[in-house]
Amino acid sequence: MLQDNCLSWTFKKNQCCWGKEGPTISVPVNEIVSVCQGEGEKQSKTADAPSNLFTVYHISRKSAQRWTLEATTFTTQSCQEAHNWTQVLQDRIQSIGAERPRKLLIFINPYGGRGKATRIYSTKICPLFQLAGIERDVIETTRANHARDYIMEMDLKEYDGVVCVGGDGMFSELLHGLVKRTQKDSGVCENKEEATLTPCKLRIGIIPAGSTDCVCFATVGINDPVTSALHIIIGDTQPMDVCASYHKGHLMRYSVSLIGYGFFGDVLQESETMRCIGPFRYDLSGFKMVLSNRTYNGTVEFLEADDSHSHPRDNTRCRSGCLICSESSERLKEDKDTDSQDYESETWQKISGSFVAVNVTGMSSACPKSQDGLSPTAHLADGTADLILVQDCNMFQFLRHLKRHTNKKDQFALPYVKVHRIRAMRFIPEKLEDEEAARRRKGLFSSLCGATPETSSWNCDGEILDCAELSVRVHHQLVQLFARGIEGTSCS
Question: Which residues form the PH domain (predicted)?
């Protein structure tokens, strides 16, 4: 039965179960991938012969966020009826699936992460795109920034989206290429901090094949390649904020998850010397940085968001159809005349001191190792980011904070941790006094982990920004992903 854009059917029980019917299944038409006349895989072999069967390929949920493709074959009384059902469903899919991509530009990173991207695409993803009738131009990257440069230079008008098969680094390439290309085509100077950037029209798809796949995990709820491919096929759209980082007025990088100074910056810097041991280098460098317990002096200035809409500790999760993100679209349209160009006229808050970590995250930054992430209630598309300040504390106190990223406890319910929902931030480092610098050189773990330098580096979505002074601006819904947000309840 086809009613209200939903296809429903009831399975028949075996004859021994007289008078009883099987379960009733309902599938929204927008979650049907394809319809063909005939019996599943056999239909291609009997394409010339009329059939009274038709097969529906549709999404099936195996867990809260994991999707799989399922094929259900129906029997009708005649070949014509099977043809009619096939035609009606195909027409209905077209009428309500206007946002489905017809042609994609796909980049595969064959070396990054687990080194399995090419195999994942050829065995799991390409057959799905073929079934859905999606045209594909596939490029295997051969160097760093290959995908970014291609997007910057080539004509993209024929594509409905760009897709990366790889990890967070590959996504970052697509993000930079698409944002920069959009600003170039729009005549916007992205190097100006006060510039209002033009949102990108092309959507970005992520087929996870990296080490952490943080962006995919935080926007879909799982790092499963088939699930992500199905979101792309049915044309799901999830807008997302982007943070732009500047050093002395010059654009450094764009990011969507972590911008971290202190601990996370030092971990990344240290890990660069251990690339030969693979992803384990992050665990080892993290252990060394915990032992060293480095702190950095500086001043954090930030423009806090309106607390009446949301707060980092309100216990509300950003989920599919999030009202906070939806309402922010209308609210920021009304405030268009008072956006980033007037930031300097607003009241900035200031905190000075010694910090173990200064983190800015535009999303929860959840990953398989940390299901809630750095900031569990951060929103994907509300025009804000969460500023997390871990002030001077001892090694065991910092470990307690880190452990709470994995045990569901409130990582902000500690006296030395502060969190603010912001629209902009700037950090100004301070030089150490001679006595303090000498004390650090004589520290317990200085010989093992190295003495604490005067300043740290910034970790910007896994890339090192070799500067200490930095300003960050949040650009509302600058890009769109082939996703719908994590399905589930909004409250934890």
Answer: 1-94
What amino acid is encoded at 238 in this protein?
Answer: Q
Residue environment code for 346-381, b if the CB has 16+ CB neighbours within 10 A, otherwise e: eeeeebeeebbbbbbbbbbbbbeebebbbbbbbbbb
Max CA distance (Å), the chain: 91
Q: Mind telling me the catalytic residues?
A: 168
The structure's pTM equals 0.91
What is 103-236's CATH number?
Answer: 3.40.50.10330
**CA distances in angstroms from 105 to 128, 152, 162, 202, 264, listed in the order given:** 15, 13, 5, 10, 33
Determine the 3-state secondary structure of 254 from DSSP: strand
Architecture of domain 246-326+348-475: Sandwich (2.60)
- Residue 337: other Cβ atoms inside 10 A: 7
Note the pLDDT tens digit of each residue in 429-471. 997 665 555 555 555 555 555 667 889 999 999 999 989 999 9
How far apart, in whole angstroms, are the C-alpha atoms of residue 12 and residue 384? 52
CATH 3.30.70.100 fits 2-96, yes or no: no
Distance separating alpha carbons of residues 383 and 13, to the nearest angstrom:
52
**Which bin fits 452, alpha (ψ -120 to 50), beta or left (φ > 0)?**
beta
